[in-house]
Amino acid sequence: MLVHPSGPTARSDDGRSFLVADAEGSAFVAGSLIVVRADGRRQLALVEERSETTPVRLRGRLVGEVTADGIDTRASHAFDDGRVEAVDEAMVHNLHETTGAMLAVGTRLTSPGGPARLLPTRFNRHTFWCGQSGSGKTYALGVVLEQLIAHTALPIVIFDPNSDFVRLGEVRPDADGPTAEALRERDIRVLRPNADAGSRLRAKFLTMPLASKAAVLHLDPIADREEFNELLHLRTVFEAGELEDILSALLDSEVPAQRRLAMRVQNLGLPDWEVWAGQDRSVTDVVAERPDVTVLDLGGFSTPDQQLVVALSLLDDLWARRDERRPVLLVIDEAHNLACPQLDSPIAVAVRERLIQIAAEGRKYGLWLLLSTQRPSKVHPGIISQCDNLALMKMTSPTDLDELGTYFGYAPTALLEHSPWFRQGEALFAGGFVPAPVLAKVGSRLTYEGGSDVDVPLIGHSNT
Fold first, then answer.
1. How confident is the model at residue 25 (pLDDT cuts 50, 70, 90)?
2. Could you tell me which residues come within 8 angstroms of residue 417 by beta carbon, excluding any fewer than 6 positions away?
3. Cα(257)–Cα(463) distance, rounded to whole angstroms?
4. Quick one: pLDDT band at residue 1, thresholds 50, 70, 90?
5. Which end of the chain is more exposed for a tag (fewer CB within 10 A), N or C?
């Protein structure tokens, strides 16, 4: 412990927050951990704000009481005239050990430095991950996912529209240590639209709920009441096979509504979609086995609606089985593709509504979301508002930052304001999955990144 002989003093009236009225000459900034010694106790605290006025003031929150057994984050006490002391890395290690923060994701950017770690047990809350293009968002997310995969038994499903995580099972030859060895042992499956049999990304129309079938067919129960009603009475027919199997029967039917339904299927081009499983296994079959990781390479489909069909099929199935209470982390990269309030096609609306339902009610059933996006404003507020964890990388949009401050009150404003100045790979972690909000530089990947940037060709240089 580094003691400042004539250092600043602090006061806490409520036993939760603290104020240092005069911190002139101290090196503490927003994000620094400190210890306050008062009334025979030592309490760990986080500086959340440093004023630029004179006298310099520090404000923040009390993290917990330092005891012989560790740091009790459930206990904090009011005090007067508390002596402020700097913290060393041993104290940070003590905090990590006490709280169970074991996922090493990088290094702290503020005093006292040392590793930045997350709590694996608190991924049982929804997580919001955001950063603009070029911030290192996808790479950094890969670092955290590697830690989760290696050090927990939590099954993970990744909705991957840009093929960024398709090489998550390929550990670099030079990677060593316990995390790398654990990654090599994990069951990581990648499903792709054009893969060999057994690894194809497919959905089954016949197993989808009625409402989802209607969404695929663009059927409204009122505007298209005759066709919708026919769909209601054709449940047994639709359970006999996929669309192409029943199309001829509908076309040959003497019932006008059935023929109109068949023409709708043809006009939408549904029989030509490669997404339908046919004799292949569906995505729901694979995920039901709960591999350690299932990567859904959505980007290879010829139409965006087919990506939505895969998402809807899986989300519906997980929700229908929710009473089984089998935990799964649903990582949705580029979440604005599935959860944007402005998307208005019937399939997109169905996907978004299911995500809103999972965000609001899925936590108690073990259905946990991790949503990653460049554009927070393009994700439905009913989903963002349910997130208890925040990872924020570089974000220069004042509108987006203001909205994040509204949704994530547990993230100190002064730390949010660092975001426009973050370098690539730097982030703010706040919420339940971190012992205290922390500014960090994310570490290196142990596996290959699937969608890294393409270099600009230069004269006289090779870009191989």
1. confident
2. 401
3. 59
4. very low
5. C
What is the rounded CA–CA span in Å between residue 373 and residue 9?
42
Confidence label for 420 from pLDDT (cuts 50, 70 and 90): very high
CATH fold for domain 116-203+281-442? Rossmann fold (3.40.50)
Tell me the C-alpha distance between 114 and 452, whole Å: 28
Q: Where does residue 324 rank: exposed (0-12), middle (13-18), buried (19+ CB within 10 A)?
A: exposed
Least confident window among 371-375, 435-439, 453-457: 453-457
In the numeric block, the tokens 């299927």 are attached to 265
Strand 33-38 relative to strand 41-50, pairing:
antiparallel
Helix, strand, coil shares, percent, the chain, to 5: 35, 25, 40
For the chain, the domains span: 9-99, 116-203+281-442, 219-267
> What CATH number does the domain located at 9-99 have?
2.40.30
Distance CA 105, CA 140 (A): 8
Q: Tell me the pLDDT tens digit for each residue of 316-334.
A: 999 999 999 999 999 999 9
Supply 291's token pair. Answer: 């591999």
User: E-strand spans in 53-162?
Assistant: 58-67, 70-72, 79-86, 103-108, 115-118, 126-130, 156-160
State the Cα–Cα distance between residues 21 and 9, nearest whole angstrom: 8
Give the C-alpha separation, 379 to 147, whole Å. 26
